[in-house]
Amino acid sequence: MNIEEIKVGDYIKVKKGIKAPDFEYQLMDNWQGKVVDIQKEEKLVEIEWDSETLLNTPERYLKDLTKEGYNYEIMTLDISELEQADRRSNSNQEKDLKSKLEARLYWIELFEEEEKSIKYGKLFQGIQLSNYNQLYQKWEEYLSENLDFPIETKVVESERGRIRNGAKIKLLNIEDYDGMYGILGIGKHKNEAITFPICNLEAINKKSKNYDLLKDYAIWFANM
User: Fold this and answer.
1) Burial 182-219 (b: 16+ CB within 10 A, else e)
2) pLDDT tens digits, the chain, 224 residues: what are they?
């Protein structure tokens, strides 16, 4: 295939053995996309990857692209690295793939650690990012099953009310959630039973899994 044979809108794929520019650990065998620009004199082709390619791109590579500020949807390659291809999805399939891709990229951008982004991506798979009720329900279910109660916690963010930053709360369980404060926990503060948003609580034992789980939820809540 030469530069004169293609036009904007054509579908192409990457030949076997070609490595990603600036990230040579990543092979791009058969990655596919649409031609969006052609630089004939330089023999360069700008490609917009299709959703299937992006959805199957390794986690490490997507994280590195995001971290370094690259556009993960677009890449420019030499014509010698490409060959023609057929479009492989219809509009309905593309819509479904884009929804899955959006969710995957959300968790990759939210959590720096690869292990966490993979874990939460799988945990919330199939839930629309705009469906806050289902997201809260899944968080409530997951935290209820994985937190070890009771948990000695401290308040890390509370600008109003009588319970301020640094106050100690023994978290006994998760009660419910609402649209303003998120998931609510029930606990004790100075021998008084209270209800308090867990996004503002931090486990005192920083080496415990309770600390990590509450922190992960707080990060999500702060960025929702």
Assistant:
1) bbbbbbeeeeeebebbbbbbbbeeeeeebbebbebbbe
2) 889 889 999 999 999 999 999 999 999 999 999 999 999 999 999 999 998 898 889 988 988 888 888 998 999 999 999 999 998 866 667 777 777 788 888 998 899 888 999 899 889 988 888 899 999 999 999 999 999 999 999 999 776 567 888 999 999 999 999 888 999 999 999 989 999 999 999 999 999 999 999 999 999 999 98
Instruction: Kindly report whether the global pTM for this prediction surpasses the value 0.85.
Output: no
Show Cβ contacts of residue 156 under 8 Å, excluding neighbours closer than 6 positions.
Answer: 165, 200, 201, 202
d(CA 10, CA 12): 7
Domains in the chain, CATH or no CATH each: 3-120 (2.30.30.30), 131-223 (2.30.30)
Q: What tokens does 6 get?
A: 């293609």
* Cβ contacts of 74 within 8 Å, gap of 6 or more: 36, 46, 47, 48, 49
Q: Is-contact 150 170, C-beta < 8 A?
A: yes
Query: Do residues 170 and 188 make contact, with C-beta atoms less than 8 angstroms apart?
Result: yes
